[in-house]
Automatic annotation (TrEMBL):
InterPro entries: Aromatic_Lyase, Fumarase/histidase_N, HutH, L-Aspartase-like, Phe/His_NH3-lyase_AS. The gene is hutH. GO terms for cellular component: cytoplasm. Its main location: cytoplasm. It comes from the Bacteria. Signal peptide: none annotated. This is Histidine ammonia-lyase. GO terms for biological process: L-histidine catabolic process to glutamate and formamide; L-histidine catabolic process to glutamate and formate. It catalyses: L-histidine = trans-urocanate + NH4(+). Keywords: Cytoplasm, Histidine metabolism, Lyase. Belongs to the PAL/histidase family.
Length: 507
């Protein structure tokens, strides 16, 4: 689990106003434990939103989830003296998540995204409740949130309920490396639980912050994966003496998808100065599709990534509550909590990441198959006595096969809930979790390609002929896994390399 951060280490501060949170700022909070504050303008909106709710309650108006039951029970009126208990009961009843806990990074993302959504001033939350949410984030109190159990509408009820229970001194949290009851965690951090008022439980859990938090992390990991895939392709082209003509800007301009040229331009830049790369007709007329079509296949995945990133950025700064307290005083019920925009985006990201791995595995086969590469079988120094990287290709094939199962769109499924009142749901949280699984698998495949390309370059003693940029990356790969001089177990190195590829962007 993440190590707690001291106040002295929190040198960076991110201001939340509900409208301008960026991926870079989210990473600062999630990874570097930057502190959060709510902007002054946001506090004004929060106070006004709360005032409107209290006025409506005092006037005896019927408002869903404020003085009525939830879901199919929305036609049950709640007495004024019980509106606080109604909100507490909501958290307790909805905390039904199961499975392994979400990692602390995802929980931190959930906390900041929920705080940012509440800062928009449409949810009717009290200032003290929102401040406690921010305090938990800043002091490293990470609620224990089971990973499974959300339908993705009405938002991420179960995960967010587990998150919110900490604020009332219930549930469990990780604090300073210990798993503690919520009340104990708050006390050790010098904080006190709140007693919920009208609508506050609903304001805390009716939203898409679990799927969006997972999705935001997945977007960054997928960005790093795509850059790694482009670099792996460069190493393979160096190893197999690929033809550069297929990456010509004049050629690609005849099919003007900008992502195709972005990939091709990156590869041309990274391969600049190589004495290994060939021209059309020099050694062969055409390369196989897995090399010749890199701009088209990688570029299409980048297109899908761009769509998914846009939807995540929008959702990071959106109100996903119900009902919503409008500035004109109306409190309207709608479907802003429905996760379909994120569900579709995450399903598309799953396919994009799976395709980076699919084409990479085909390049791996070209590297290890002597009939395709002209190199030593399976890149073994002593083939026959040694198997070389034969079974590394098996592992890559298994990973891409698993990804094909995971890539089935979660968003095409819907199971009605709440006695058919909530009769269409998104399954967006499932899609988001699966996207990270696929991305992790794809990173392992890309790592295997880099290892195979490195070995092929080693066997040809071609290091001095590489482009400066690919040679630099090759040296980094070899710090993790040196060239194989005999059969060696490399599973640990594959995993280390894959995690390193996801952690930072190749530039």
């Amino acid at each position: 689990m993440d190590e707690p951060v001291t106040q002295a280490e929190q040198v960076e501060v991110v201001e939340l106003d509900g409208d301008r949170l960026s991926r870079a700022e989210l990473r600062l909070i999630v990874e570097r434990k930057a502190a959060c504050v709510i902007s002054e303008e946001a506090w004004i909106r929060v106070h006004e939103s709360r005032r409107r709710i209290e006025e409506q309650v005092a006037a005896g108006k019927i408002i869903y989830g404020v003085n009525t039951g939830f879901g199919k029970l929305s036609d049950v009126s709640i007495d004024a003296e019980d509106v606080g208990l109604l909100q507490l009961n909501l958290l307790r009843a909805d905390a039904v998540g199961v499975g392994e806990p979400l990692p602390a990074s995802v929980v931190r993302a959930m906390l900041v995204l929920r705080a940012n959504a509440l800062a928009k001033g449409y949810s009717g939350i009290r200032a003290e409740t929102l401040q406690l949410l921010v305090d938990c984030l800043n002091r490293g109190i990470h609620p224990i949130v089971p990973s499974k159990g959300s339908l993705g509408a009405s938002g991420d009820l179960a995960p967010l309920a587990h998150m919110a229970l900490i604020l009332v001194g219930e549930g469990y949290a990780e604090y300073e490396g210990e798993r503690l009851p919520g009340k104990v965690a708050l006390e050790r951090a010098g904080l006190a639980a709140v007693k919920l008022g009208a609508k506050e439980g609903l304001a805390l859990i009716n939203g898409t912050q679990c799927m969006t938090g997972v999705g935001a992390i997945a977007i960054t990991e997928a960005e790093h994966l795509g850059l790694a895939a482009d670099m792996a392709a460069c190493l393979t082209m160096e190893a197999l003496r690929g033809i550069i003509d297929a990456f010509s800007p004049e050629l690609l301009a005849t099919r003007p998808h900008k992502e195709l040229e972005l990939v091709a331009g990156r590869i041309r830049t990274w391969l600049d100065g190589s004495r290994r790369i060939t021209q059309q007709g020099e050694l062969r007329v055409q390369d196989a599709y897995s090399i010749r079509c890199i701009p088209q296949v990688h570029g299409a995945s980048w297109q899908a990534w761009g769509y998914a990133e846009d939807k995540i950025l929008t959702e990071m700064n959106a109100t996903t509550d119900n009902p919503i307290v409008l500035e004109d005083g109306r409190v309207l019920s709608g479907g802003q909590f429905h996760g379909q925009p994120i569900a579709l985006a995450m399903d598309l990201l799953k396919i994009a990441a799976a395709e980076w791995a699919n084409i990479s595995e085909r390049r791996i086969e070209r590297l290890v198959n002597p009939q395709l590469s002209g190199l030593s079988p399976f890149l073994a120094p002593n083939p026959g006595l040694e198997c070389g990287l034969m079974v590394a290709q098996y592992a890559a094939a298994a990973l891409v096969s698993e990804n094909k199962v995971l890539a089935h769109p979660a968003s095409v499924d819907s199971i009605p809930s709440s006695a058919n009142q909530e009769d269409h749901v998104s399954m967006g949280t499932i899609a988001a979790r699966q996207s990270r699984e696929i991305i992790a698998n794809a990173a392992r495949v890309i790592a295997i390609e880099m290892i195979c390309a490195s070995q092929a370059i080693y066997l040809q003693q071609a290091e001095d002929d590489l482009a400066p940029r690919t040679r630099q990356h090759l040296e980094w790969v070899r710090e993790i896994i040196p060239p194989l001089t005999t059969d060696t177990a490399i599973s640990e190195q594959i995993e280390i390399l894959a995690q390193a590829l996801l952690a930072e962007a190749i530039v």
